[in-house]
């Protein structure tokens, strides 16, 4: 049984016939679950036009009414969180408990957006000059585009959509074509919550849809999350078309383990953060930097934990790690295992020979030790269940490894030495840092973003920086003078 997955434009499912479609798989069985319509230029125009028509009314909708829609959406999402988790697992493959975690973190962002009336308060300076008041207003941008990756099909759209609409913008969301159904579920719940037609539209597709949004003169801003080459392209193309762009890219996240760390806790964390969601997380730990002399003991503790991981269909409560998202991605990840062996890294656990179910896009957890920083398993973002251990002689050597890496999304240090941890938080050139926390995804009232090649643009996602990104500020200087105070004065106004 396959189904058709189509665009959501102006509050309803698109009724046209697509020129191109893409297959959507069940990664656990390898079967095609559905076909998703791919937008051409005509559908990009339709979606943007719907969002543009909805903008004047939504912009003028009171803060109270906007936040009430978000509160209702939050209630609906909470009541139906299990359904959304099942949709995620069915198309992405991650295990249900992990999908439920994704939905929980998504709801955090909706809750933050419910506070829009507080966030959108401007400043007011009475008597900035005698009888002159100055105040600021945060206004929406207009139609904004959100382009999201496959690995968090609900959470990443909800990093942006609630804050964008809370600020009074209207949205065209272009989710990943690999797992498009979660975004439609979200759009339908928003409609049920009372969001007017056209305020949030979902446009499916590939590069054609993305390019259409990047070049469209009516689209004022783009929030993008995906791999670094595409993030760079989106940033450069969008800004060259005069748009405000935040483009979050890929990662290679290092977990430094100092000699004084509790090695059992560190090994638990490395396995959880390395193989959760089959390593398909932008905040996954993909490199462990073991500072001498703990390397041998740490590698052996990690390997023994890997041996007891259950790989299987994400719908089964026993499974701890699901399949990869597509056959092509599984093959690409497996090719890195071969590349690591050829480059001379020590293959401690070979996921290619792990017991996995038949049919789907499977690869077991893999561990390499004695990885050098010139090997492709170190330099490239693999985005799969492959963990690399790099040995370092000292804290300074470990820090140098992390800081020399072109990515700067997340990092963690495991230690019981507060002074070393504080030094690390100060010296490391990475946007999100965990002190004995392996996946330091900031809560919804902070903002999420990496440094260096992990983010293009100057705004991080969600939280206060999200509100900043989705508004532009107007500063008003006002006075109500007595007519007797008139008179021509060609001098530059001074404050008195
Ligand atoms: P991707 O870059 O392949 O795709 C992301 C989006 O861009 C999708 O909507 C896709 O349709 C579109 N796209 C793909 N190729 C394109 C092209 N040539 N031109 C224009 N648009 C194109 O990423 P993915 O494989 O879906 O997701 C995994 C990547 O996302 C990883 O690199 C991961 O690290 C990254 N990611 C980063 C963060 C973060 O916050 N920094 C969060 C999640 C995922």
TrEMBL record:
It comes from the Bacteria. InterPro entries: Ald_DH/histidinol_DH (IPR016161), Ald_DH_C (IPR016163), Ald_DH_CS_CYS (IPR016160), Ald_DH_N (IPR016162), Aldehyde_DH_dom (IPR015590), MeMal-semiAld_DH (IPR010061). Keywords: NAD, Oxidoreductase. It is an enzyme of class 1 (oxidoreductase). Its EC number is 1.2.1.27. Residues 20-476 form the Aldehyde dehydrogenase domain. Pfam families: Aldedh. One of its GO terms (molecular function) is malonate-semialdehyde dehydrogenase (acetylating) activity. The keyword NAD applies. The keyword Protein biosynthesis does not apply. PANTHER family: MALONATE-SEMIALDEHYDE DEHYDROGENASE (PTHR43866). NCBIfam families: MMSDH. This is methylmalonate-semialdehyde dehydrogenase (CoA acylating). It comes from Amycolatopsis thermophila.
